[in-house]
TrEMBL record:
Residues 35-279 form the Orn/DAP/Arg decarboxylase 2 N-terminal domain. Keywords: Amino-acid biosynthesis, Decarboxylase, Lyase, Lysine biosynthesis, Pyridoxal phosphate. GO terms for biological process: lysine biosynthetic process via diaminopimelate. Substrate binds at residues 275, 311, 315, 343, 370. Belongs to the Orn/Lys/Arg decarboxylase class-II family. LysA subfamily. Pathway: Amino-acid biosynthesis; L-lysine biosynthesis via DAP pathway; L-lysine from DL-2,6-diaminopimelate: step 1/1. The keyword Nucleotidyltransferase does not apply. PROSITE patterns: ODR_DC_2_1. GO terms for molecular function: diaminopimelate decarboxylase activity; pyridoxal phosphate binding. Transmembrane segments: none annotated. This is Diaminopimelate decarboxylase. It comes from Pseudidiomarina planktonica. It is an enzyme of class 4 (lyase). Homodimer.
């Protein structure tokens, strides 16, 4: 299953990746349906009832990916109306949607209320008041959870840590109880939950459990005042192994979380995993355009750049890079693997031992999460195509953008 070499060819399930590159061109994102499903089941199997798992759409929002998950009964964590419309188009149920994000517009709130989403994860008192108004105009009560910032150190890259006081997310712990009281007093707000999300790519689950303890104490305090919080949403953040790291054991994490939550009666637990569902289920295929021996370094120039996969440039993220064909006769040498974009920061990997020659295809591994969704048209580069493999079949799930797509909607002056 998943990505493996067989007869020296890297495959997605039973499809040879080199053949996909030939057929559909590069750069090319390729996902494994079986692996997405297996990753989902690793969560859903260990999840107690009542429960709700909401896949974080931002990790990979392709309609086919969302549809595969919707068929497994997934809920969805969205951060924009664009993501909401994708979920609906892909067959997701509005009532299983939670809406996160620090700066929701009134128009976004109205659309989400019309669809009847399950919960607004509100991040500030100002947002609470706006939602109260918008819900009033619609003659409905908005289901609300307040996102609390539990001030725990997620021990991850500073750009993806979100649970510290210094971050823009959520309501500070010291102000949380008052914010809940205020929410409970507003006529068009129905307080149903409390949520947090302390960061992404956590390899150690201790900070999640610390945060859960803090959230449970808060929920008990609020319930003692008659504010009936019925669910706790612990957000996403479970990390995956990009290099040789030990990724968290999902079963052990969920069991520990469940045990803690047993302290509080009738509490529905929710999670919003993104990366852990799709991260290792995708690769980015790229072609070696040139080898360029420099005076200090050797460069491997490839046809995918930071516009296709931003993570290395933005977070110094490490992704394994492998030739899709082994033992081609090329000798393994030390390269900086760099893209075609005119930026020094445009690289996929520094100082990598790779055996490949001009024209060979490489796979950038673990690119299924925050790969395509963070891609752009910078340098007027059309975005890559996306393929989903299922067994021996490859489905095009997004066509490569054309040059015409690049200037769609642009106008010359009259
Ligand atoms: N819930 C909330 C409220 C979030 O903000 C996020 C991610 C998630 C769930 C899903 O987290 P995950 O399970 O995927 O860790 N672009 C960065 C990651 C940014 C994550 C932002 N929030 C990267 O490529 O590493």
């Amino acid at each position: 299953m998943s990505f493996h070499y067989e007869q020296q060819q890297l495959r997605a399930e039973s499809v040879v990746l080199g053949e996909l590159a030939q057929r559909f061109g590069t750069p090319l994102y390729v996902y494994s349906k079986a692996l997405i499903e297996a990753n989902w089941r690793a969560f859903s199997e260990h999840w107690p009832s009542p429960h709700q798992l909401c896949y974080a759409v931002k990790a990979n929002s392709n309609l086919a990916v969302l549809n595969v998950l919707a068929k497994l009964g997934a809920g969805f964590d969205i951060v924009s109306v664009g993501e909401l419309e994708r979920v609906i188009k892909a067959g997701g149920e509005a009532k299983k949607v939670v809406f996160s994000g620090v700066a929701k517009s009134a128009a976004e709130m109205a659309t989400a209320l019309n669809y009847g989403i399950g919960c607004f994860n509100v991040e500030s008192v100002a947002e609470l008041h706006r939602l109260n108004e918008v819900a009033g105009e619609h003659g409905v009560q908005a289901p609300v959870s307040l996102r609390v910032n539990p001030n725990v150190d997620a021990q991850t890259h500073p750009y993806i840590a979100t649970g510290l006081r210094a971050n823009k997310f959520g309501i500070a712990m010291e102000q949380a109880a008052d914010a809940f009281r205020e929410a409970a007093s507003l006529p068009n707000i129905n307080v149903i939950g409390a949520d947090c999300h302390i960061g992404s790519q956590l390899l150690n689950t201790a900070p999640f459990l610390d945060a859960a303890d803090i959230m449970l104490n808060l929920i008990m305090e609020l319930r003692s005042e008659g504010i009936e919080i019925s669910h706790l949403d612990m957000g996403g953040g479970v990390g995956i192994a990009y290099q040789q790291e030990q990724s968290p054991d999902i079963g052990a994490y969920l069991t520990a979380l469940r045990e803690r939550c047993e302290r509080v009666d009738n509490l529905t637990l929710m999670l919003e995993p993104g990366r852990a569902i799709v991260g290792n289920a995708g690769v980015l295929l790229t072609k070696v355009e040139y080898l360029k021996p420099g005076s200090e370094k050797q460069f491997m120039l490839v046809d995918a750049g930071m516009n296709d996969l931003l993570r290395p440039s933005l977070y110094q993220a490490w992704h394994d890079i492998k030739p899709v064909k082994q033992a081609t006769g090329a000798s393994s040498q030390l390269y900086d693997v760099v893209g075609p974009v005119c930026e020094t920061g445009d690289f996929l990997g520094h100082a990598r031992h790779i055996a490949a020659e001009q024209g060979d295809i490489l796979a950038v591994m673990n690119a299924g999460a925050y790969g395509f969704t963070m891609s752009s048209n910078y340098n007027s580069r059309p975005r890559a195509a996306e393929i989903m493999v299922s067994g021996a079949t490859a489905h095009v799930i997004r066509e490569r953008e054309t040059l015409q797509d690049l200037w769609k909607g642009e106008q010359l002056l009259p």
